[in-house]
Amino acid sequence: MGIRFPPPLFGINNTESRSQCFVNIVEAADQKLSKDELIERAKSVLTKSDGNSYSTQYLRRIIHTYIQLGVLKEGDDHISVYEFATDWQETKIDFAEFLWSAVKRKWAIEGAFPDGIKGLYDIHQVVKHAESPLPRAEILHLLETDHGYEFNTEGIRGYLPLMENLGALESTERGYVTTAPSRFSERLRNADICWQFEQWLKREGANASPPSDRVKRDLGKYVMYRECGGHGRHRMLLDTAREDYLDDSILTDSASAQLRRADKYIEQRNCRRELRDEITDRFDGIDSRLLSGLSTTALGQIAAASNEEEARRIKAGTGSGLSWRDLELKVPVNRDAYTFPDSFELYEWQREAADRWFESTGSQSEHGIAQVITGAGKTVMALEVLQEWLKA
């Protein structure tokens, strides 16, 4: 089973003019408008190309999309707009910036549609890495073959025009091209809360704190549901991580579209920077580039080294995630090292497999899969590999 692409976006065409219409109606009202009242007022402003009015049902679907985009803000019993809509109306920001603020606020900060952020990023990556402009059908095909997506009959409806309005893509006669590749790759990645946590845990390791065990648990469930094609209620699992990662002031201040991390994550980032500076100041032979990607714990161990030789030895045993150094620290000092009994001998296939694990002929060393029938001795073979690795 592949990953289900996020649900289609209905009524994205004429995005700027429709956004202008809805925002004008809301801001011009002398009282709070319900959704039904907004629909009735929009009927007299939004018309078809032949001059006829849209149906109530059609406008209801469109307004639902513009609430989903963050252009409109839905309260308990009324429709309003975010403060950055006023900035757009007063020409303090252009429409593309307003729309990005709306999407980021609604989809990422409020967590209403995190899968949409990932969908936009994956589309952008497909077009960004293409050697020539891509038509819509080719984008759909590459999302399926390269990213493992599955689609309903609507495909990627609404996403390409949305990205055009954001300024991320441009439509040409031959297909779509990116406009500012690096800028939008960074924007979309920064707004992907799940990806931010994946990078954090990759660097700091599974035992890192923050985040809490509850955040890690819910984040793992969210990824499993998403990768198995689930959409809908599973997004609530990401709320635990989102509320932990973002500063409380951002979550409660609906006027802001800035992604500000909680103090505990900022403090740990600053701690890593200070440790890197301390290490490079103390040890002339260690360049800051050698410290890139190391966890706070690993940097602290290197900084505490008594000399550069010891620092380099610690560095050699560290890395992102669970490292050799981490394993060493988990071993009780009074426990004898593990060894096989003197009379024990590996089977011929176990010895061959263990030896081949460290070879690089034809494939990368220390990578591979041992495919053997149940009960043949894969665990014993793995213990031999681990024992040799620790001796290296």
TrEMBL record:
SUPFAM superfamilies assigned to the protein according to its UniProt record, in alphabetical order: P-loop containing nucleoside triphosphate hydrolases
GO molecular-function terms, A-Z: ATP binding; DNA binding; helicase activity; hydrolase activity
Pfam families (alphabetical): ResIII
UniProt protein name: DNA or RNA helicase of superfamily II
Keywords carried by this UniProt record: ATP-binding, Helicase, Hydrolase, Nucleotide-binding
UniProt source species: Haloquadratum walsbyi J07HQW1
Residues covered by the Helicase/UvrB N-terminal domain: 344-390
